[in-house]
Design brief:
Layout: H1 2-21, E1 30-38, E2 43-48, E3 51-56, E4 65-68, E5 76-80, E6 83-87, E7 101-111, E8 116-124
Parallel strand pairs: 1-7
Antiparallel strand pairs: 1-4, 2-3, 2-5, 5-6, 7-8
Length: 126
């Protein structure tokens, strides 16, 4: 019985240490994410981090969807003006997850020298 109590105590200490090293966050924290189309053009087949948000008319906002490990920027693919567009982060090194709460990813259009580009802004909702 003493051995069982010792093992249980050791496991508890290891779990507490891992939680402390993670900054008090659980890696499984789920953010509530919605998407707003602020490109000035209708966009279709919007997908953010593998989650389908469908088609969005100009100025439209989707409902919230669960997104584990959401960050201030994300992988986005969509069709705008008949062209498939992608926004692909290199990595999330040094970034902190958004954590629990409600957030809006705002998709905006940027004019490049030779083509239109998309960008993403993450806003914490009240």
């Amino acid at each position: 019985m003493r051995a069982f109590a010792f093992i249980l105590s050791a496991v508890g200490c290891v779990l507490a240490l891992l939680f402390a090293l993670s900054g008090g966050r659980s890696d499984g924290e789920i953010s509530q994410i919605r998407v707003r189309n602020q490109t000035g053009m209708p966009i279709k087949q919007v997908e953010v981090n593998g989650i389908d948000y469908g088609d969005l008319p100009v100025g439209a906002v989707t409902g919230y969807r669960d997104m584990p490990s959401a960050y201030g920027y994300a992988r986005v693919q969509l069709i705008m003006d008949g062209k498939r567009m992608r926004l692909q982060p290199d990595d999330y090194v040094g970034e902190q997850p958004l954590g629990r709460g409600h957030f809006t990813y705002v998709i905006v259009k940027q004019e490049g020298a030779t083509m239109s580009l998309i960008d993403l802004q993450a806003l914490r909702d009240p």
